[in-house]
Amino acid sequence: MLQKRIIVCLDVRDGKTTKGVKFKGNVDIGDPVLMAEEYYKQGVDELVFYDITASSEKRGIMIDIVKKVAEKIFIPFSVGGGIRTLSDMKQVILAGAEKVSVNSSAVKNPSIISEGAKHFGKQCIVVGMDVEMDFSKPSGYGIVINGGRTKVDLDALEWAKKIEKLGAGEIVLNSIDADGTKNGYEIKLTRMISESVGIPVVASGGAGTSMHLADVFNEGKADAALIASMVHIDGYTVGGIKEFLNKENIPVRI
């Protein structure tokens, strides 16, 4: 089994890290630059920075914060929110990000995936999928964009397969139903997508305990797990989570 990655997510709104439940009721919880530096010291494998209102507000990403974070950490760093063009991607990469994440813009203009992969390499292109249960769809899951505000007529499994064909290097699979609940990842969804594509799948939404990560690696077949509330609010450390996973015989970088 390949080493599993632990990724901390910093959702940023108005320059502050924020956290909500099912994409609602967000409260500010800290400075993203200071928090990024702390998780880097704790041994996190990667960091993800999402400007969560850039798309809905139809504006560009807060590039100054991206630059400040990139100066403090020396691990893979993915940035998303409001990235619509190759120029936006270039700006983020030049600011210090190793990966760019597209979500709503990829649904609206799928060619951004293939164009980004062509110009910057597929390893740079991450596609975020915000997914919620929808029994009208063949897979039982549909796609939502604009920070959970807008349903679109897309089946989650069909979209994941198309993302891979277009040349993305990775999928971040976020369950809106599980987001912020701390009841565990959406295992059924994660396993379905992980077993249907050949690119890495990052499970996102619902982590509340270290065992939840073990479950999504073992049962959900995820390549990486994204966490937020556990380390932002609940007192877990990256090192402590990795020690637990190591004892569960899940390979992680210690």
What number is the mean pLDDT?
92
Unreliable stretches, pLDDT < 50, 5 or more residues?
none
Note the run of SSEs as H and E. EEEHEHEHEHHEEEHEHEHEHH
The CATH architecture designation is: Alpha-Beta Barrel
CATH superfamily: Aldolase class I
Q: What would the CATH topology be?
A: TIM Barrel
Number of strands: 12
What's the CATH class, please? Answer: Alpha Beta
Distance between the termini: 16 Å
* Oligomeric nature of the chains: single chain
The total tally of domains equals 1
How much beta, percentage-wise?
Answer: 25-35%
Major sheet strand order: 1-4-5-6-7-10-11-12
Provide a compact summary of the structure.
By secondary structure, the protein is α/β, with parallel strands linked by helices. It has helices at residues 32-42, 63-72, 86-94, 104-108, 111-120, 156-166, 187-194, 210-218, 229-232, 238-247; strands at residues 5-13, 16-21, 24-30, 46-51, 77-80, 99-102, 125-133, 141-145, 150-155, 170-175, 201-204, 224-227. The protein has an 8-stranded parallel beta barrel, surrounded by 6 helices.
List keywords for this structure.
single chain; alpha/beta; TIM Barrel; eight-stranded parallel beta barrel
Task: Tell me what the structure shows.
With 254 residues, the chain is of the alpha/beta class. The protein has one domain: TIM Barrel (Alpha-Beta Barrel), CATH 3.20.20.70. The chain is built from ten helices and twelve strands. The protein has helices spanning 32-42, 63-72, 86-94, 104-108, 111-120, 156-166, 187-194, 210-218, 229-232, 238-247, and strands at residues 5-13, 16-21, 24-30, 46-51, 77-80, 99-102, 125-133, 141-145, 150-155, 170-175, 201-204, 224-227. Strands 1-4-5-6-7-10-11-12 form an eight-stranded parallel β-barrel, surrounded by six helices. A hairpin with a 2-residue loop joins β2 and β3. α1 runs parallel beside α2 (63-72). The longest helix is centred in the first third of the chain and has 11 residues, at 32-42. The radius of gyration is 16 Å and the shape is globular.
